[in-house]
Amino acid sequence: MRQIFTTALTLWLSLSGLATAQVADLRSTTQFRVCADPANAPMSVKDGSGFENKLADLFGKIMDRPVTYTWFPSGMGFIAKTLRAGTCDVVMGYAQGDELVQNTNHYYTSVYGIVTRKDNELAAVDHLTDPALKDHPIGVIAGTPPATIMAQAGLAKDMKGRDLMVDRRVMDPIGDLLKEVSDGALDAAVLWGPVAGPRIKDDPDLQFTPLLKETSGPKMFYRITMGVRPEEQEWKRELNSLLRRHKDEIDQLLRDAGVPLVDDYGKELLQ
Fold this sequence. Notes:
By secondary structure, the protein is an alpha/beta fold. It has two domains: 27-108 and 224-257, D-Maltodextrin-Binding Protein, domain 2; 109-210, D-Maltodextrin-Binding Protein, domain 2 (3-Layer(aba) Sandwich), CATH 3.40.190.10. The chain has helices at residues 2-16, 20-26, 51-63, 78-81, 145-152, 173-183, 193-200, 233-245, 247-257; strands at residues 32-36, 39-40, 44-45, 67-71, 90-95, 102-103, 108-117, 138-141, 159-162, 188-192, 206-210, 221-228. The strands form two sheets. Strands 1, 4, 5, 6, 7, 8, 9, 10, 11 and 12 form a ten-stranded mixed beta sheet that branches. The protein has a two-stranded antiparallel sheet with strand order 2-3. α3 (51-63) runs antiparallel to α9 (247-257). The chain starts with a helix and ends in a 14-residue tail after the last helix. Residues 31-269 form the Solute-binding protein family 3/N-terminal domain.
């Protein structure tokens, strides 16, 4: 009976991810193994050009480990097929508070904003309840926090939605929206700063205006962390230490990429 109980307990611990020996075996000590989407520009790209790729390179250099990747499209099954499967050890750029992973300390905070042409009449708009937005076609990613505020502000008929949860190896909803703003098919697009800012930072015609003045509805700013497996406390502490000690380098990398950074309360754009 005791043998049966011990066997059952060991199996339960293994299945629940709580077996110490098994957890200890998951994380590589010779590589910096990253879980990433191969076509999530401008964040992660298989050719290494994304700013999350560059952040991974920075960490690999600091830790003196080669950076390796497990590639899998974002969306349903991403964590299960990558981090939880044990083929990689960290997800870069993960929103704070998601229960699928254990979050490190956040290493930047960014904000949603409005992309317009600099010569457009909406270029001065800096909040979603501005009456000037009415009767103008505005692109937005369906299901995102600003879409809720826009609907509450009576802009539902003006919203031109796109779905973000697509296979970005063959579809590019963010790129499509930005092109439509540039071409004049849309007067504006309301987008997450880290996906919009880097794409337009060198564009002479487009601008990104952060939404720092919203007073109702979902918040427009979010803290970004790295994601690790829930059981790996030591690994989280190691990453937190690196994030703290190399904050200036990380901030500079993000600024160079064009990511709009705000303070932890979403009140001030950081230069």
